[in-house]
Write a structure and sequence with these properties.
Order of helices and strands: HEEEEEEEE
Oligomer: single chain
Number of domains: 2
CATH class of the largest domain: Mainly Beta
CATH architecture of the largest domain: Sandwich
Number of helices: 1
Radius of gyration: 19 Å
Largest sheet: 4 strands, mixed
Shape: globular
Number of strands: 8
CATH topology of the largest domain: Immunoglobulin-like
Length: 146
């Protein structure tokens, strides 16, 4: 009887341990979250607001991403790199990027094509592949995906 009780307790505990080791699980505590929060039309251009949420115990000296913009029909209308700069550990930061001569109303989807640069201060700023370290979210009608 005691052996069955141990099995019942250890399976949920084992699942908790396994799931917490997978990025993006454990209540989102394993990944950076990049959120497309809002788009604003301004003087013939468009301003994008991004929230970068870093719940990790490490900072990043630089975060630079390759972004592509698509219209409502899925046709590409632009592409650029956005540098978010230093990302502090256990901190959420707001970043805004303005694009002149860019119509917010035409944007239907935004693609995170790649993470171009991601340097961890712990590793001395050496470049590393951080695409899997980033999860995405968005508010509003413009989808943000990878």
């Amino acid at each position: 009887m005691a052996a069955r009780l141990v099995r019942r307790i250890s399976i949920p505990a084992l699942l908790t341990i396994v799931l917490s080791a997978i990025p993006g699980t454990a209540n989102g505590q394993q990944t950076l979250t990049l959120e497309l929060n809002r788009l604003d039309t301004e003087r013939g251009g468009c301003r994008f607001f991004f929230l970068v949420k870093n719940p990790l115990d490490r900072a990043f000296a630089k975060l630079e991403v390759d972004i592509a913009f698509f219209d409502q029909k899925g046709i590409i209308i632009g592409r650029t790199n956005i540098e978010f700069g230093k990302i502090r550990k256990q901190k959420t930061t707001l970043h805004s990027v303005s694009f002149a001569d860019f119509d917010c109303a035409k944007v239907g989807k935004v693609l995170l094509n790649d993470v171009v640069a991601c340097g961890s201060q712990i590793t001395g700023g050496e470049p590393q592949d951080c695409l899997d370290l980033v999860t995405l979210s968005y508010r509003g009608k413009v989808e943000f995906f990878k």
